[in-house]
Structure formats: structure tokens, C-alpha cells
Amino acid sequence: MSAKLKVAGWVALGAVAGALTTMQLQANARSSLSPLPLEEMQQLAAVFGMVKSDYVEPVDEKKLINDAIAGMVSGLDPHSQFFDKKSFKEFREGTSGKFVGVGIEIGMEDGLVKIVSPIEGSPAFRAGLKSGDLITRIDDTAVKGLTLDQAVKRMRGEPATKVQLTIFRKLENRSFPVTITREEIKVVSVRGKVVEPGYAWVRLSQFQDRTVDDFVKKVEEIYKQDPKLKGLVLDLRNDPGGLLEGAVAVSSAFLPKDVEVVSTNGQIAESKASFKANPEYYLRRGGSDPLKKLPDSLKNIPLVVLVNEGSASASEIVAGALQDHKRAVIMGAQTFGKGSVQTVRQLSPETALKITTARYYTPSGRSIQAKGIVPDVMLDETAEGNVFAALRMREADLEKHLQNGPEDKDDARAKAREEARAKLEAEYAKNKDSIKPLPEFGSAEDFPLQQALNQLKGKPVIASKTATERKAEAKTGE
To answer: What b/e string do you get for 25-50 counting C-beta neighbours within 10 Å, with b at 16 or more?
Structure first.
């Protein structure tokens, strides 16, 4: 491994969209820093003094400074963030796949917390919370006005403590309270099975500490069950990303040795790196190469990768690498488009700064920032067409997202989202049973999976007749 790569340290999962991050433990000063703007620094000091002396009630100085740092960073892009003591602890918990909370994957919609999916077996799952539910209150606090991280903080806590969530179920047009007892949540990031003789399905829901080991274990189980495997579907739908090493390792399981998986580029030296399909680029804290346990045939087995609008960051790295090396057929919908790297620098033993330091590029040199990976074959969510696809947010929809150059505001996409929402609400008002949730991934009713299997078998594939590639952004001079 190169010296610059060793300096870069480790890569970890962000709080919500699978933020791709590189952890550097030193908060070292940069000799390249330009002089601080004196007049603006004096204004900052003056405001701090006025708030401290003139505000209607006493304020905590440390909180003022932390809020100032948080505001400074949040104005940069959707993924840069200041971690205080509690949020830094939660950030590190996120990479381990274990945390104490209610057990939901979440996003934001109209200023409210939206439940993307309850984690199977979690307290939220047992309480009957559903995908699409909106959380309007957490205990006595209204969610409107909170950031997603602030909402997460209020829902997490100590084991066996209770939290009351007020839920608005839009399609039923009703609100109701749910009291949930927090417990340790263990996220299982790898599932898989032999779908039918000769064909298997492996799903990665996140890239966490144990994802690579669990991936290897699952593939071993599948090959023991069916040693004569003819084709494999790698399912990365709704995978928000996570550990870069995990993405490099999973890509390496299917690629020849020494080929490039992903590269990064930014202003600072350690942001300029190339990651290849070799153990030194994905092994952490020593240890043996887990991929050695995999059968050699995995390098050549026919492969389809399923993606959708929820596939982001590390999952886009895998899809992009396998697509560029023509190792797999990518099927599904255009991905989220998170093509930036966040470096986490520890400021103190309990606080840190996560800041965007680079873009990442697929082996052919593509930056997917605010665009995503375009599938080789576009698929609808169901045989009847797309139901919820237009409602899903992408990187390009986020305020202050990092651009690849001049880009047009996609008013048409925002309009389509509102039209799709209105259509769903109108249909539900006529008939509450008219809108059904999408089938579970990996089930017999999973339409994209059936098309992926058809692709592997050489049978006709029902491609989308309506899905089109989103307009590419202008290229930068990098």
C-alpha cells in the first residue's frame, strides 16, 4: 500500500445516506492555509461577545462555539458535519452495525423524518411502523425545524428507555402515537439464497465492519448448497453505502487482481489515491484476506448487479467498477449520485469534523457526483411500472450539493415528484387497497430480480419503456 494511502486511514459510514468517509486520527495543521480574514474574525468575536452579554438569558459558551462550527460546516454541502460528543459516538457505532435505538432507516421529507424502512426484528418493526410513515414529534419535541442528525439523537438513547413517536401515515391520513422501548439494534447487512437451481441472489444493505466477512460466509453457504452455480445476482438496491474498504473488497471478489476499483482526487495530497483489487487496499488492522475463502469460479460467474435510486456512495463504487470492467450487467434505475469523499478529522477525544475533501471516480474516470450510475438495462419497480420511484430523493435534489460544473435546476423532476405524490394520494382516497407496498427484495414477486434472472438465463428481459437517463452534468477541468 502506498504511503499516501496509509495516511488516509479508514473509511466509515455516515449517518443517513451512507456517507463515504476517510478517517484520519490526527487533526494536523495545514501549511497551505491562507491567512485568516481578520475583519470577519473580529465580527465573529464581536457577535460571540454580544450574545454572551446581551442575550435574554445566560448561554453556554461551549454550546455557542459548537453551534458556530456546526453552522459553518453545514453551509458547505449536505455531507459535511461537525460531530459533538454524542453524534461522534453514534457515527462510530454506525460503522459497527450496532447501536441503541428504535431500529429504522430514515430520511427527510417536507421537513419531517420519513421512515425509509424499519429494520427487521427491531422495536420499530414490532410496533408496526411502515415505510413511508412520517415522524412529526419525538416525545414532546416537534420534528419540523430539526435536522436529521438532531432527530436521530432524540430517538437514540440508553437500552430499556422509552421514546414516544407521533406518526403521520399519509395514505391513511391519520396521526397516532407509538411508544417504543429502545434496545441494541444489530443490522444484518448481507442476505442471500439459491433462488433456483444454478442461480443465486446476494443482497448487501450496507457496507459495515462485518459486511465483507458476512459476504464471504454467505457466498460459501450458497456454493455448498449449489456447487454448479451458473449465475449470481448482486443486489445493491437501497444500499446507502458505507465503508470504502468494503466496496473495494466486494468489487475485488469479482475482478482480476491489480485492476483499479476506484480513485479519488481533491486539493490535499492524501485525497489523491487509487484503490485496486488487491488485499492491501481493503484489509484493515491486519489479518488474513477473507476473499481467499471464495471459490475461484466467482471471478468468472455471469453476474448481474441490481441498483436503484437508493443505491449510493460505496454501492455506486461497486456498480461503477463492475460496469467499467465489463464484469457485470447493471440493471435497475439510475443511482443516487453521491460521488464525494468526506474526511473525518478528530478535533478532540470526543469531537470531530467530517468535511468533503475529494470526488471519487470510476475506473474509466467518470465522476458520478449528482448523476449516478446509469444501468445498462433500465427496469421498472413492478411489472405494472414504477410506483414510488419518482418520490425518491437523489443527490441532485439535495440543497447545496457538490456540483460537477454548471447544471440546470431540474424543475421537471421536482414537478414529477409532486405529480406522483398527488396521484398516489388520489388513488388511495378512491380505494385504500389500490396502492400496495413494493414486494420484499428477494421474494418471488420481486420484478427486477426476475428480470435479472432472465438476463442470466438468456431469456427476454422486460426493460422499462418510460425510464430515461437523467441529463449529465457539465464536466469540470479536473
So the answer is: eeeeeeeeeeeeeeeeeeeeeeeeee
